[in-house]
Amino acid sequence: MNTKRKADPRTVLGIVFIFISFGLAVNKPLPSHVLLIICNFYLWDVRAYRESVLYSGMYSIIAVSMFYIHYIPNSTIALMIVSLSYFIQKFVIAVMMIIFLKKKTSMPSIISAMQTMKFPNIIAIPLIVVFRYLPSLKEDYGCLKDSLKIRGISISGLRFLIHPIRSLELIIVPILFRSLRIAEELSTSVLLRGIENYKNRTNIYPLKFTKTDFVYGLYTAIAVGAVSYLQFSNIF
Q1: Quick check: 235 and 30 in contact, CB under 8 A?
Q2: What one-character-per-residue DSSP string does 29-48 give?
Q3: Are residues 53 and 170 in the same domain?
Q4: Per-residue confidence (pLDDT) for residue 3, from 0 to 100
Q5: What is the largest CA-CA distance in the chain?
Q6: Percent of the chain surpassing pLDDT 70
Q7: Of 155, 101, 154, nearest to 128 (Cα)?
Q8: Whole-structure pTM value
Q9: Among 112, 148, 107, 142, which Cα is nearest to 128's?
Q10: Residue 109 domain-assigned (yes or no)
Q11: pLDDT of 158 over the 70 cut
């Protein structure tokens, strides 16, 4: 893929939507593995090498555990592991594509793309809020962790296993109160920005399809065709 020129955010949004949808729809091992490889190409394109290794390793561990699942004698435990692994695999694909979206474009460009594509506010506003809130949530969690560490309280994985209810209380309650405050700030902000004004808004980020978008589109079409063939054919 040609990465010298920046892709149109509409192209990036389309790619992310397509592969997240495929990640949810695919239910065979081989097309799932191929889809993971394809998502890695997109992460490499934006130089997200660490994230690629992290999530590919997570996916690989799950795939290996699924391969040996028939050695577990307890059917209930085996079913729980299979169900959890299935959802984690879907989650990994979605997170990888969201990372690609985050690194490939910017929030103002995404907003401009949604306005150009006439996204209804009932869809656009929640997506924008989620994209803006996740970095804030990560920062708040880091501050909370540092605050608890200063007070001599550890929220490590071992403590969570020993005292799960207490650990959840220490984490979730402050995050919920912080989320309520952020929700109030966001609602005030969107009202001040004229969200209730239904007139056409100006766009300071002009969008234009280029040859880069054609390359991305061609690669995506080939990838979708390959995954679809593996999913719906009876060869594998």
Answers
A1: no
A2: HHHHHHHHHHHHHHHHHTT-
A3: no
A4: 43
A5: 63
A6: 84
A7: 101
A8: 0.73
A9: 107
A10: no
A11: no
